[in-house]
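>> received
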Amino acid sequence: MTNPTAVISKNLCLYLLEKPSLFPCVEVPKNAINFIRIHKEKLSVKGDFSFPCSLDLWKNCCKETGHKLRLTAFDMFKEVEEDICNNERQKFLKIASRWAIPIDRIRIDNERCFLYLKRHTVMLMLLQRVLNNDKNEECYGKLKKNPKQKVWLSGMKLAEQQHEELSFCRAKLVENILLRVLEYSQWTVVTEEYAEEARKGNIGEVLMLNVASAAGKVTVNPFVIPPSRLSYATIRCGIVIDPITGKLTKLKTTVVPMICV
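>> returned
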């Protein structure tokens, strides 16, 4: 599947801009794509994407390619002319709701337009693509490109007090989930002794996976020095923030052993 961000950016630029008549095959301006900001937090408030509504900004970015602004499209940002604005917004949403990554609604605030995806539709589409991976040329996770991959999951070693911290509890849960994912992937999970032989260069390549919490001590993956055949990758989990104080959590919890069904 094409990068969803690239799909949204291209569709949006094609809606707001008109290609030059003499060069209809020219790509959308790179500066215009850079205007489109991807949000990574507080999505329910900020939306998934946003971009500036300023005509001057968009005009300047079009100079390099000769694109022109589709002025009727920009009418949806003119809140002074309410009727025209609402009509253009409805027109935009009617078209954007049929995009490959559909838009559900928009919000204008402080000269920025915020886009909210149709989350249910997007999630359903992505899950179907992953589950039907056998029928697609794409390989999610690239598992099929190396079906003989051997991996060693280095278990987390927690101090007694860390078992009660939510940040470390989260990392431990991720580690348990990762183990299930590895089983599903049909990769071969090897023992520590086997990985040690790979480190000595006595057998084939092994990937060592390590799950760590950002609340713990930061460690750097070592370089692979021949004849070692052991490579390294670390999945680092974020900390859990206290919702009241906004600081690193002081809450306590009890780790319940996970039962794999």
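>> The CA atoms of residues 158 and 168 lie 8 Å apart.
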